[in-house]
Design a protein that fits this description.
Blueprint (H helix, E strand, L loop, with lengths): L2 H4 L2 E2 L5 E5 L2 E5 L4 E5 L4 E5 L3 E6 L5 H22 L2 E8 L4 E5 L2 E5 L6 E4 L4 E6 L2 E6 L2 H13 L10 E4 L15
Antiparallel strand pairs: 1-6, 2-3, 3-4, 5-6, 7-12, 7-13, 8-9, 9-10, 11-12
């Protein structure tokens, strides 16, 4: 049994949730998100709470989807009310970033700058060597942060590259001179 699926989601003020068949529609003042459940779980929607239940016709598959859809719905609720953030840190001599319109320009030690088009729904701010990504979609924030990090992952000897702020890089010892 899913422990996550049993928990009800409290609906905050200013967020409207409606049910259209098997699709949940989340609305706040600016953004609308949808979650299609494909009739895999039972949806219980009241004025203050949203909860999910097992569909007996689905069998064991329903148990797998029960907690997943609850977590996805909770991520949408949190994203529409407070949003998600991730921070990346750029370390290295000459490594820098600049935002030009909706393009993030990265200089990461290659012979050319890397231009990354910022997707819709993501807001990137730059303060010294810290990139802050903000948005309403948790999956999209993680994907964009992962793509930016993949341009120059941190190396284990000097720690140069792009890393998450809370990431710990295990440093290796370099070569030692023979005595």
């Amino acid at each position: 049994m899913s422990r996550i699926g049993k928990q009800a989601i409290t609906i905050p003020k200013g967020l409207k949730i409606s049910l259209d068949g098997t699709k949940l529609i989340f609305n706040n003042a600016k953004i609308q998100k949808e979650l299609e459940t494909h009739d895999r779980v039972e949806i219980n929607l009241t004025n203050e709470t949203l909860s999910f239940g097992l569909k007996e016709s689905q069998g064991l598959k329903a148990k797998a989807f029960w907690g997943t859809y609850r977590a996805l719905a909770n991520n949408i609720v949190v994203g529409l009310t407070s949003g998600f953030t991730k921070q990346l840190e750029i370390n290295g001599v000459g490594y820098k970033a600049a935002i030009k319109g909706n393009v993030l320009e990265l200089s990461l030690g290659y012979s050319h700058p890397i231009d990354y088009k910022i997707p819709d729904g993501i807001e990137i701010t730059l303060e010294k060597n810290i990139l802050t990504l903000k948005g309403a979609d948790k999956q999209q924030i993680g994907q964009v942060a992962s793509e930016i990090r993949s341009f120059r992952a941190p190396e284990p000897y000097k720690g140069k590259g792009v890393k998450y702020v809370d990431e710990v890089i295990m440093r290796k010892a370099g070569k030692t001179a023979k005595k």
